Amino acid sequence: MDELLLLKKNDVRKKVIAWYIRKQTSVNNEWIANHVHMGCVSNMSQYVAEVEKATEGIVCKLKKMLK
Hints:
Blueprint: H1 2-6, H2 12-24, H3 29-35, H4 44-53, H5 57-66
């Protein structure tokens, strides 16, 4: 997980990881933001929604890899 520290807080890969964690667990947004190193908790719902709504591009490819 140290590699996550090197990525920007709003990196698409982090967003997909956050989406997957939300989908598969009951942990709260604060836990995800802290453990995935995403910064501000208030953006988490927006990030997860972006990934959920994505229908093409790298986000969809990453989602399919996790399914």
